[in-house]
Amino acid sequence: MKNEMMISFSAQTSNVVFSRTVALGFLVNLNIDINVLNEIKTAISEAVTNAIVHGYSNDATKFVKMEMQYDDREIIIKVIDYGVGIEDIQKAREPLFSTKMSEDRAGLGFTIMEVFTDELSVESILGEKTIVTMKKKYHE
Questions:
Q1: Which of 47, 117, 119, 134 could be cross-linked to 79 through a Cys-Cys bond (beta carbons 3.0 to 4.6 Å apart)?
Q2: What angle do CA 55, 96, 110 make, to 5 degrees?
């Protein structure tokens, strides 16, 4: 990899903007089209929001971890939480599915991440952790 970084931050919704800002700062030296940057920001917002809302139930005493790396062609983003885990990943990835429907959640987080990245993988162990890995090509 050409460059990499990792950060962790408190699991509170105000840090969604922080995570996007850090990501853009990390990528600023790359010659990336503004539309690609917006797609990356949106995908990160969804992944971090999922970790905060679903992984930790908005528990600001917990921490979300974000790792990023890039080479000459591709950016890899990982968002990790050590929360409740996902019982059924396939079901969670279905459009409009949410375990928090009573909180007016749209259930589109994974769908949006999938649309705005080239590859999305989700690993989860109940009661231990969830790792969302997103890959985005920025040069062909």
A1: 47
A2: 50
Q: Measured in whole angstroms, how far is the alpha carbon of residue 32 from the centre of its chain?
A: 19
Tell me the C-alpha distance between 23 and 103, whole Å: 28
Give the list of residues 6+ apart from residue 60 with CB closer than 8 angstroms, or none.
Answer: 10, 11, 12
**Phi–psi pair at 76, nearest 5 degrees:** -120, 130
List, by residue number, the catalytic residues.
46, 50, 105
Q: What is the pLDDT of residues 55-88, one digit of tens each?
A: 999 999 999 999 999 999 999 999 999 999 988 7
H/E element holding 49?
helix 34-50
- Tens of pLDDT, residue by residue over 89-121, are 787 777 655 555 545 555 567 888 999 999 999
Q: Residue 122 to residues 73, 87, 130, 135: CA-CA distances in angstroms?
A: 22, 12, 7, 12
Q: What is the pLDDT of residue 116?
A: 96
List, in sequence order, every residue forming a beta bridge with 131; answer none if it has no partner: 80, 123
The pTM of the full predicted model, rounded to 2 decimals, is 0.89
